[in-house]
């Protein structure tokens, strides 16, 4: 009978197994084994409560059976009774020191509570019994993941999956390892396999939905989450459902979930921000006020709720804003957020005297309040630049960290720039840039200057495509200081856009590794294999074909040895500004590529080399490429969208209004012609070559 029950469970015929187990237990009511099999069948059909009661009945018969204690521990762990599970496991190991499963379950419980050392210790004990067991590999993989060693974790969990491809713990660990590596498409496969075979508890479905969301597939993510959206849904899941619906363009549906999330947990800033965006899209201020007032009636001590209520007031109605602020202050008299909101309302209404007074009061109460100091400095900058500089200089001695000192230094440099202290500003920017450079990427290598490459030395352009053919793969690049990140922001909603090269989950292909430049130049790197490696990696990044916009960290014409013969229907999009402006911008604000500026002179030398390469590529038509000059459009999303739409021949959507990104205006370099004469002299010839005036 036991064999029949086990065979039915292996086939997934849980109802059949349960019927057999009931007959077995009825036939042998005094058999611990019969009750153990019935408990297994009850657990398989989802009746954990009945399974636990049956195991307890079996333990009344065989109190010292280690397998029964282990089975009881597994059921308790499934019900999140960690202490009960731990006690049962300790009894199981006490009765049978060679109980492999007990050590593994104890290790899994240790992982659940974040005790990596204990999980590792228990895994070492289990390894003496079954060193290659997939559950042990899974635990080792999760420990490696917890210690931020994703490559090791992925290798261990992949081995575990080869040995136990249907084990839910293994599949879940493998999905988490793929997520840690940024391989969302593979994580999706593992999670779908897990849910298809075992059903979909809410945490698994939420993980799958988040994985699909990162692949910009919000509607599919919402479909995956839908079975978990029953009546008893935690606020975090409701928030995710609302966020996905909003991303899918379904603001009405988003509000259904977000209202429930607000009712369950009124003071969550992220939920309120999403709800405000949904109300904005629907232009439904009345519903916003009604929902927020209802929430405030139950949670008047939630600052985020008051902030959202204030945000629902029209900008052109300062009296209504003051009325909300009065209620807020009455409910929370010492709330710094209320003081900050009052300061912002004064600014919006043009009362800078009141805003300055409120900012000074807030800064006095909270000396490290960046928003208050920003208002003080901005107002003083317009009234008395020297006083603004003095204010920031007075803050420097109290800066408690390197990050704070670096932030204040950048602030001070901008004030010195505004006050005409160009020598001091330039020196401060360079010092700050050199400080950042130690934590950033070095300057990328540069291959042989284009004019030194013989015309016949370039590989045949077999993948050129006709001029009228649509581009399938677009490679976006702009040097540090070009404000290419603003162009990337406009392209971010285009299907296939990828900015993962700027992140720790960057792909390790030919377009990413610095060694590609010398490898392609001297023939050590096979261009065909390099191109295939890039194509193979697209699937792991959630791209099913080559329809991709790749935002590159660096460019070198050596990459043409890969693109010309081996990447079909591709194009390049180069984004530039006046090279002298780029150098200054790079020093002042860094770059999203995290390439450090070692000094003005060295950075100018490198910029000169790479820009001459770009100019040669464009002039000689070495590849299908478009040059976009965005001088004067920096920080203006509408103007930038127009320039980019014209260059690409396709209309781009303009994102909602947002704070202007930090950048120096076009032509700002001319204020620094004397201070930075040498590096500017180095960059002037290539600037002229790219169409910029000499002076």
TrEMBL record:
InterPro entries xrefs: CellSynth/LPSAsmb/PSIAsmb (IPR051012), TPR-like_helical_dom_sf (IPR011990), TPR_rpt (IPR019734)
Protein's recorded name: Tetratricopeptide repeat protein
Each TPR repeat, start to end: 235-268
Membrane-spanning parts: none
SUPFAM superfamilies: TPR-like
PANTHER family: TETRATRICOPEPTIDE TPR_2 REPEAT PROTEIN (PTHR45586:SF14), TPR REPEAT-CONTAINING PROTEIN PA4667 (PTHR45586)
Taxonomic placement: Bacteria, Pseudomonadati, Pseudomonadota, Gammaproteobacteria, Lysobacterales
Organism expressing this protein natively: Luteimonas kalidii
Repeat keyword on record: yes
Keywords from the named record: Repeat, TPR repeat
Lineage: superkingdom: Bacteria
